[in-house]
Amino acid sequence: MLVLVVDSSTPAVTAALVEIQPDRLVLRAERCVVDARAHGELLAPQVESVLAEAGARSTDLGAVVAGVGPGPFTGLRVGLVTAVTMGQTLAIPTYGVCSLDALGHAAAATGQRILVASDARRREIYWAVYGDAGKRITEPDVAAPAVVAGQAAGLGITVAVGEGAHRYADILGLPLRAELLYPPAYALAELAAERIRAGDPGESLTPLYLRRPDAVAASIRKPVLP
C-alpha cells in the first residue's frame, strides 16, 4: 500500500511516499526543506513532487500519515489541513503520530534514555523522554530549557536529539546526536504501520499544540471614542 507521510511540526517541511509491505517499509520518495516561514508554500508542491518521482497519482494512495506535533500553531496546521483534505477527498484513512515520538523512535538504542526536544520558540522547547525501543517515558510538554534540564536530571538521560536540544545544548548539558534534528518520515510511517496493516479505522487528526497560539482574538471590543 502506498502511504503519504507529511509533517510540518518543525521548521522542516516534510512530504514522503512510503510503500507499506507485509514485512517491511520502502521509502519511495521524500522531500524535506527547512524553512520556518514557508510551510504553506512548500508542502503542496512537495506532495506533488514525491508522487511524480514515484510514478504515482493521488488516487493510488491508501492512507495518509501526519505528524500531529507538538508544534507552533501556524506551521503545524498546514500539515494537518493537508492530510485531512486529502483523506476526505480520496476517501482514505488518516493516521496521526506524535512528532516527538518519531524522533524518539528513530533515535532508540538499547539501554539508553533519550531526550527529544524541538524548538517551541519563545525560548522554550517541546520535549519528552524515551527509553528502550523508543518507548515514551514522559508525556510531551513545553517548558524553558533550564526547567527541562532540572526535570531531566533524575531520569538517567544519556543523549539528546532534535533541533531544540541542539539550540539549547549549553543549558541542557547533554551529549547530542547530530544526525537527528527533525522527525524522519520513515519513523512516522513505521509508528503508523501496524494500524495501517491491520486496517484500523482512520483517526481524527488532533493537533498537539500544548499552548495557546501567539495571536489570540480580543475578547472585549475597545470603544472607538473616549
Distance between the termini: 64 Å
Strand order of the largest sheet: 3-2-1-4-5
> In the CATH scheme, what's the topology name of the largest domain?
Nucleotidyltransferase, domain 5
Strand content: 25-35%
Question: Any idea what the radius of gyration is?
Answer: 18 Å
Shape: globular
Order of helices and strands: EEEHEHEHEEEHEHHH
Provide the CATH superfamily of the largest domain: ATPase, nucleotide binding domain
Query: Which CATH class of the largest domain is shown?
Result: Alpha Beta
Find the structural class using helix and strand composition: alpha/beta
InterPro entries: ATPase_NBD, Gcp-like_dom, T6A_TsaB
Protein name: tRNA threonylcarbamoyl adenosine modification protein YeaZ
GO cellular component, one term: cytosol
Domain Gcp-like: 36-149
Could you outline the blueprint of secondary structure elements for this entry?
Elements: E1 2-7, E2 12-20, E3 25-34, H1 39-53, E4 61-67, H2 73-90, E5 94-97, H3 99-107, E6 114-121, E7 124-130, E8 141-143, H4 145-152, E9 159-161, H5 163-167, H6 169-172, H7 185-197
Parallel strand pairs: 1-4, 4-5, 6-9
Antiparallel strand pairs: 1-2, 2-3, 6-7, 7-8
